[in-house]
Amino acid sequence: MSKKLDHTAACEHLSRVDRKLARIIARSGPCRWQPETTQSIFEALLESIIYQQLNGRVAATITERVKALFPENGDRNSIRTRRGLVAAFPSPEQILAATEEHLRSAGLSRAKMLAIRDLAAKTLDGNVPTVKQAHSMSDEELIERLDTVRGIGRWTVEMLLLFRLGRPDVLPVDDYGVRKGFAKMLKLADLPKPKELMAYGERWRPHRSVASWYMWRAAEMKDLPLVRAPANKAGAAKKKRSPGSTKPSKPGKKQKAPIRRRG
User: What are the residue ranges of helices labelled H in the chain?
Assistant: First the structure.
C-alpha cells in the first residue's frame, strides 16, 4: 500500500543526511511533486510509452493526436486533472479495434504503436493491474509484472510509481535528468553510472522520490554547470622529476582512474 507523502519530513531528512542536497533544496524551494490520481494504470503507461525518448512538447502533441483519433469519446468523457480539464484517453478496446495505420497517423512510430497495442491486450487479459491491485503490490513486484509488456522497462514503471502511484522511495538511476542533476550537485566530470548513483542514494532512504525531484531541479539550474574533464592534449609538456624524487609506478601495474571532481 502506498504511504502518505510528507514532503516536509522528507526535506528535513534529506537536508540532514546530505549537505550538498540541502543546498539544492534551499535554492529550489518546497517540493511540488504530486502524483496524478485520475489516470488508470493503462492510461498512465500509454502516456509514458508515447513520451519515451521524445521532447516533452513533441510527446504532448502526439498524445493529443492519439486522443483525437477517437472523436466518439467527445467532451463528455473529458477528465479533470491537476493540469485542468483534458481529453480522455482511448480505451484498450478502442486501441485494439483501430488499424495500425490509423494509430500511426497520430505520429506514433511502429515500435510505439505495437507497444500500445500489446499494453491494451495485456490490460484486457488482466496482466496489467488496476490501480487498486497496484497499491497492494511492492515496487519490485510491479516492475517484474509490467516488464512483460512490450516497450515497457524499468524506467517506464518507475515513472508510473512516481507520478501515478506516488511511491515515496523511488530512485530512477537510469533517468538522464536525475543523473545530470546528481553530476551537477557533486561537480562530477561525467554522468554517474547507475550503480554509483544507487549506492550514493542509499543515504536518501526512505525519501528517494523527493530526492529525485530535486535532482531534476538541479539539472535545470543553468548557473550550476556540469563539469567536463579537460581533453588530453597530444604532446603536452610532462612534469620534470628532479633526481631522487618521486619513484615511477611499477611497470605493468594499472591504476584506476578516479571520478574527477571540481572543488
Answer: 7-17, 19-28, 41-51, 56-68, 92-97, 100-104, 110-124, 131-135, 139-146, 154-163, 176-186, 194-200, 208-220
